[in-house]
Structure formats: C-alpha cells, structure tokens
Amino acid sequence: MSEQLTRSSKHIQKVLKKQKAYKRATAVAGTSMILAPVVGAAVPAQAESSQQAFINEIGNSAAAVANSNDMYASVMIAQALLESSYGSSGLASAPNYNLFGVKGSYNGQSVYMPTKEYLDGQWVTVTAAFRSYNSYAESFQDHANVIRSTAFGDTYHYSGVWKSNTSSYRDATAALAGSYATDPGYAEKLNWLIEAYNLTQYDWGAPVAQTASYSDTTGTVDTTIDTAASATATAETVASQSYTVANGDTLWDIAARFGTTVDNLMSLNGLTLDSVLSVGQTIQIG
Fold this sequence. Notes:
The protein has helices at residues 7-29, 45-67, 73-84, 136-149, 169-179, 186-196, 227-230, 235-239, 251-258, 262-269, and strands at 110-119, 122-131, 151-152, 155-156, 209-216, 219-226, 242-244, 282-284.
C-alpha cells in the first residue's frame, strides 16, 4: 500500500477539513445556525458525474463478489475509489483493471509501473510488478480472496472486516484502518465515500430490483428481477432461460443473478474470461 495520497484521497481530506472547520465555526456562532452541506460544492458537476458513472460501472461486480464472500460491497467500492483515484489511475484503467494496487502477478499476468516506496528513510521511485486482471470483477474477487484468506497462524488477519463479525460497514472500515492501511484517517475517508455516494445500496448483493429482458419457453417478457430470489433459482428454471445483455453487465453479474456459475455460462456460450460482452447479446443461461 503506497503512502502517497491519491487524488481521491486528497480530495476527501480537503472535504473533511472543510466539514470540521465549518462545524467549529457554527459551534462558535451558536446552535441556531443550520449546518449547510459542503460536500455538494466540493466537486465540480462534471467530475461528480464521472465518479458516479464509474461507481455504476463497478457496483454490480462488487455486489456479486461481496455477497458470496461475507463482505460489504459498500466498503469494497469505497476502497476501490480511494485506491484507484475513482478509476482514473493507469493501473486501474483497461487493460489492467487493478483497483487496489496489488503487486505481483495474477494467473501469470502483470504490468510494470513506477511507484513510490519508503526505503532507507526516504521516498524513492521504483519500478514494480503489479497484478493485471481481465476485468474489474477479477480485481474484486482477488481482493476478496486477500480479505478472506490472509492468516497468521490460526488467526485470520482481516476477520474483523467480514459481515458476520460486524454490525455495520463502519465496524469493517474501522478494522481495515487497523490492519489494511497505516493511514489513521483511512476509515474516515471510506465512511465519507460510502455516505456521499450511497454505496450501502450495494450491500445486499446486486441492486435489489433491476429491469431486464429475458426469454423463456413461452416467449420474451420484460420483468423486474428480484436478485435475492433469482440467486436461488432452481436448475429447472435456469435451464429454460436466456438473457439479453444490458449496459454494464459482466459474466459475474449474470451468474449471480440467475444462480449459476461463470464457468457454466462460459461453457454454454463458448466464452472465455477474455470475452467482451456486447449490449443486446443473447446469453444462454442453461
């Protein structure tokens, strides 16, 4: 984890400082003064739109991975925004899709990039190998593997981040601040992102209701899919369906939605992890 601040981290620090300064000022002025939101004016509309678009792009992938790994999607998305400068870093962009700055290689894939490291008492620029993924979904899954499997002896290092060991996302961000990052303000930054962008909407799997078009044995219908119900779809129901790809869909999203696996979808449709889905493409579910 680099100690250098990303642009998103710098922005959040500025906003938090403004909020604290404003609260101190209103405390002096008196309780009759109503706190006006300062976050809205802190980000230009164009940048805000771009950031929200990126969240829309990665949200469902994060939800699918988090839901199957006992984690908070809101926290995963907030970490991705913070670590990748809202997806704008070279490492996070295509074709690398590395949202969390993870070093090393992934399935033999890596990319070499300059990075700042603290060596012998000073910051120096070095060239290091970072993991390269085929999609954001792979980046989220690899991050989940780290959070779920890192252990020292019989103790899981990040168990305090798991949903089953917490009462809210704030417990998870507090645990990350003490184990994942050395930045004392890490939890506060994540909490700000979660609240500013309403990321808790992703915390129960994929968004609760999504409109999709799919066909069954009786013809094509438009319906609103309850993802909680569809995640438990029976094999008989799945076997009779095909799905029309919508904007932002990934194989992981579709698999989670219909209660099947990515491997099954790839086998049925002659796809690989490198395949790019097209809007309007028909995917056989079973």
